Amino acid sequence: MEYDFDLFTIGAGSGGVAASRRAASYGARVAISEHLRVGGTCVLRGCVPKKLLVYAAHFADDVADAAGYGWRVAPPVHSWPDLIAAKNQETTRLEGVYRKLLSDAGARLFEGHAKLLDAHTIEVNGKRHTAANILLAIGGHPVTPKIPGIEHVISSNEALDLPKLPRNIVIVGGGYIAVEFAGIFSGLGASVQLVIRGEELLNGFDDDVRVHLAREMRARGIVIHARTEIVKIAKRGSGFSLGTKAGAELSADCVMYATGRKPNTTGMGLAEAGVALHPESGAIKVDEWSRTSVPNIYAIGDATDMLNLTPTAIAEGRALAETLFNNNPICARTEIVPTAVFSNPTIGTVGLTEAEARAAHTAIDVYRTVFRPLKNTLSGRDEKTLMKLVVDRASDKVLGAHMVGPDAPEIIGGLAVALTCGATKQQFDRTIGIHPTASEEFVTLRTKVPEPKAKAAE
């Protein structure tokens, strides 16, 4: 059977665009559809605009620190509307870049909501198209719990376009989105309260990282309400009242929820096409080749049960194009993936946490340092940096590297190369660092952290 296209991609985010461009470059007839704006979550509603706001928040520190270095600066005044306008201008520019990349590659763009009619047929705006292969790069969306008053809250989407900076904001959630926006709003002058159901922030991260970040955030004036669950929200004048399960009450003029995201898998015709989903999460089931339960339908990015990171989605998309259209079957490597949290201070991490390493290996060695960066000596800032290495004792292989502090994502990005290559602690020790920098601490760690005491038998 002759199809209209060799590949039809649904979703023009980073992963979908990467796959479509590369497939088209190999001569495939490619179409891609998007019902919102070209660029997807990362470019328009996530990584890029959020980090632009993170930069803005960090300038407050730079101005405060300048006095210790002899600068006399008048009290700064920040304009939130000017920041949002500049952010919007940049995301619009990037959307234009993405459109041009698709056009130059020869991919055809259909703008509108797409759904599957069967394993080879896609409908966009009432018109049907057929494809030999279909790629689902449909992303995800924020979700909120069903409690009274939840209609009053905003998500990270709306937080990027508020008409004015809140004076007092409550952020519910302890994941990376919550802590990043807590740093943004706090850095720009808002009073911030963070509400988490557990004991610590950032489930899944190394415990030392979690504790260190919370300590530094509290030092910046951010109030963290641990072991707290919001059960109702009510409008109170120009603000809101939040009732907790324990009977306490919090107040704010803005409430943001960052309690998770779900794949955009409803209303897509996936069941009709036979695409299997995970019953609990709604994520699309895929194998290591990004193939769904239907042999010619693939899925990448936030809609799957794999790593929900932009670079991972891009790697999956490019690997799929290589496999289908360049006679080069490859899988995206996701064993060692560096991760950043653009909190204040920032986090960079790659490899196993200490807990994961202890569970997977007979014996490990842990190296850890907490120090005051050189820049903070003259500025008078008390904030400290954390660095940590987790090493397999038997092989001397470095299993994980973790950092909280300025430039952590930039430094960990380099260490990810070393861990991908299987570097050992001895090779770290033989590396000559650059002085004076924070990064040199990773190659001068010599003292092992004492082994944790065994818990007494119950």
Descriptive account of the structure:
This protein is of the alpha/beta class and 458 residues long. The chain has three domains: 5-142 and 262-325, FAD/NAD(P)-binding domain, CATH 3.50.50; 150-259, FAD/NAD(P)-binding domain (3-Layer(bba) Sandwich); 345-443, 2-Layer Sandwich (Enolase-like, domain 1), CATH 3.30.390.30. The chain is 31% helix and 24% strand. It has 13 helices and 21 strands. Strands 1, 2, 3, 4, 5, 6 and 16 form a seven-stranded mixed β-sheet that branches. Strand 1 (5-10), helix 1 and strand 2 form a beta-alpha-beta unit. Helix 1 (14-25) runs parallel beside helix 4 (80-105).
User: Which range best describes the helical content: under 10%, 10-25%, 25-40%, 40-55%, 55-70% or over 70%?
Assistant: 25-40%
Quick check: average pLDDT? Answer: 95
CATH superfamily label of the largest domain? FAD/NAD(P)-binding domain
The CATH topology of the largest domain is FAD/NAD(P)-binding domain
Strand content: 15-25%
- What is the general shape? globular
Distance between the termini: 68 Å
Give the SSE layout.
Blueprint: E1 5-10, H1 14-25, E2 30-34, H2 40-45, H3 47-66, H4 80-105, E3 108-111, E4 114-118, E5 121-124, E6 127-136, E7 140-142, H5 156-159, E8 168-172, H6 176-187, E9 191-195, H7 207-219, E10 223-225, E11 230-236, E12 239-244, E13 249-252, E14 254-257, E15 261-263, H8 270-273, E16 297-299, H9 310-325, E17 339-341, E18 347-351, H10 354-360, E19 364-371, H11 375-379, E20 385-392, E21 398-404, H12 408-420, H13 425-430
Parallel strand pairs: 1-2, 1-6, 2-3, 6-16, 8-9, 8-14, 9-10
Antiparallel strand pairs: 4-5, 5-6, 7-15, 11-12, 12-13, 17-18, 18-21, 19-20, 20-21
